[in-house]
Each structure stands twice: as structure tokens, then as C-alpha cells.
UniProtKB/TrEMBL annotation:
Protein name: Calponin-homology (CH) domain-containing protein
Domain Calponin-homology (CH): start-end pairs: 47-119
UniProt source species: Lepisosteus oculatus (Spotted gar)
PROSITE patterns: ACTININ_1, CH
Record keywords: Actin-binding, Repeat
Segments crossing the lipid bilayer: none
Pfam families the UniProt entry points to: CH
GO molecular function (one): actin binding
Length: 119
């Protein structure tokens, strides 16, 4: 035997359907609440992942007495990232930077001096 649903009973009783303008405002507010909660959970998850990865990086960099504080800023220029890759691979990827060699100064000759009129 057929039993009417709750929505059927509401329509028969003269009540507005569930998606009336008033219900839509509530649904929109509810959607905003859900969206805010979703964003909050995403931010929390990202913070946990950042903290976990930072600890993992520091556990490996401890072998060469290095440490990062903030994952994004400390790896930005690539130096600590190269150190991490060197630790993980066991190879030296970049040699120590050498100061640039000074080129000998060109010899001054009378031909290279500007001609000045004598006073």
C-alpha cells in the first residue's frame, strides 16, 4: 500500500514547498556555512602537511647540521633544497662557490688617454 511522503503531506496541507524563497535563503546560508567549514578543514589539513613535511626535512638536514624553520621561505631560494637533495642522494651536487678570478687590469698607454687641450 502507498504511504505519502512527508513532502506530499506538506503540499496537501497547503504549506509551501521546501524550496520556497524563505527556504532558499536558509539553504544559501547553510551552503555558506558548509563552504566556510570546508575551507577551514582544507587549511587545517595543509597546516598539518606542512608541519609534517618540515619535520621530515629537518630530520634529514640534521645529518649536516642544517635546519629550516618555515618550509616555504627556507626552500624558496633553493640552497636548502640542494642540501636536502645532497643528503638524500649522498652526492655533492654543487661545488663550493669560488670567488671570481680577477682579470688583470689593462695597461695604460698614452693612446688610451683622452686628449685635453692645455690651459
Amino acid at each position: 500500500m502507498y504511504e505519502p511522503s512527508h513532502a506530499d503531506l506538506q503540499r496537501r496541507a497547503g504549506q509551501p514547498p521546501p524550496l520556497s524563497p524563505a527556504a532558499f535563503v536558509n539553504a544559501a546560508q547553510y551552503a555558506n556555512v558548509l563552504e566556510g567549514r570546508f575551507k577551514q578543514l582544507q587549511d587545517e589539513r595543509e597546516a598539518v602537511q606542512k608541519k609534517t613535511f618540515t619535520k621530515w626535512v629537518n630530520s634529514h638536514l640534521a645529518r649536516v647540521t642544517c635546519r629550516i624553520g618555515d618550509l616555504y621561505t627556507d626552500l624558496r631560494d633553493g640552497r636548502m633544497l640542494i642540501r636536502l637533495l645532497e643528503v638524500l642522494s649522498g652526492e655533492q651536487l654543487v661545488s663550493a662557490p669560488q670567488p671570481p678570478a680577477l682579470a688583470p687590469a689593462p695597461a695604460l698607454t698614452s693612446a688610451s688617454l683622452p686628449l685635453c687641450p692645455c690651459p
